[in-house]
Design goal:
With 539 residues, this protein is α/β, with parallel strands linked by helices. Helices cover 47% and strands 15% of the residues. Bound molecules: zinc ion (ZN) (2 copies).
Length: 539
Amino acid sequence: MSKNVVIGIAWTYANSDIHLGHVCAYIPGDVLARFHRANGDNVLMISGTDCHGTPITERAIKEKTTPEKIVERYHQQFEQVFEKLGMSYDEYTLTASPYHHQKVQEMFLKLQQNGYLYPKTEEASFCPTCNKFIYDREVEVVCPKCGAVSKGDQCGSCDYVFKTEDLLKGKCRICGGQTEIRQNTNLYFKLSTLEQQLKQHFEACKNNWRKNSVNETEKFLREGLHDRAVTRDLSWGVKIPFSGYDDKRIYVWVDAVWGYVSAVQKYCDEHNLNFEDFWFNNNNNQHKIYMCHGKDNIVFHTIIFPALLMATDSRFLMPDTCVAVEFMNINGEKMSKSKGNAWPMLDMLKVFPADTLRYFCIASGPERKDSNFTFDEFHKLINSDLVNKFGNFVNRTVNYKGWDNIIPNATLNPQIKELVEKTYKTVANDIQNTNFRDALSNVMAMVEAGNKYFDEQQPWILFKQEDKTKFNDVIYTCCYIIANLGNLMDPFVPFAAQKIRDAFNIKQVEWKPVSIIAGNSVQRMPVLFERMTDKDVIA
Ligand SMILES: [Zn+2]
Ligand SMILES: [Zn+2]
């Protein structure tokens, strides 16, 4: 029976370029989506650009432009990157869209009606010149302990946490003026009252999560849940849908995670589908909700987002499987803008085919521990696996001069038949258990079995000996493996898989063995993967 599957992939913040570290968190979502679609499930793979919050407004001031312009610039870049990478989003949207604003406001009203919001008055930094409350990053404070000039609520050089009287002496980073402390009222979300429900959710789902998600969520729950501010003094963001809070906006953490819901709603609205079929509990566990993100974002997906779902409507299904990847380092160092090693993905895609980067992210990426990218290792991996094994097997079979590219009437090797059937099942389990690296290595094992079979059978000798029957069996069996690689490789290296399906005239990816039919022609194929040279690295 086909399932309804929602795959939510982390939203990229519209303030910096997408780099390899991001992509390592996103590719697993695309692997899941492509697998589930091939399996006949109804998949909605969704995400978008995260547009609100102070870093973007600060940057707009600095660049003398508007937050809208900054968001537009990055949103366009992100869309280009995802298209080139072969990310098969059903809906890629942005939190600055009027549709998203409306859906977040509807949710916020429900939180209010359900009694989860309350006002709380606290002391806060106020800039009389700018005539507004200013936050962490906007306040410049001279550390009373070490004298360093810092922004925010903690000293950047000695980690001293500033007290109210320290902040009182702070300056506004926007205008340079002296700040003062005033009473400020914000709305708070009663996260603490959901503690029991969230613990139950944790117990119900933790077997589907990786160790990093389990550990961090457990720690967060153990420390006790605290209510959280859901409004901020800002002019950029989603407006509060009731009176008394005109100068405020909904805090970005609320609006960003709700993007998962609003994007599914948007897709359903535009495609005549029922949102409830995807996200409400109404039909015998034939649902699946995955969340794919980095390890710096775990609690938002395991606690905060579920809490908002619970507080808004009890019918919401919880995201049951969280896929949090670790960090990807570059040449042994943490990726960072200041080190200049967070190369924009758009630039990398100009030099390296998307399939090679996708392959590296899965085969050598930070699935369960931090991993490292060096050009040398990337090089070696691609040349050894994609060029020498996969590409070579396809090329030596399909482009072999000894046959006329018409599939012969021949017998399929029974061991190969069994291996192919088994590989579909093994890889399906691996993918659903979010063991993507194992999944890919099991597909590669089929490629290696193909190469071994080809070497052992020596079709070039059979050809010379004019042993037509045996020769045809070998060609037929190798073609059978390749046609099935057109399905099995689709989640990982979709562009190469598409080329195979085109050559074999296979219309649709399906997660079951595809037969090849004697008499059908197979098109000769260009080389699937170019060998990488030092020249690529220098570029
Ligand atoms: Zn200090
Ligand atoms: Zn100011």
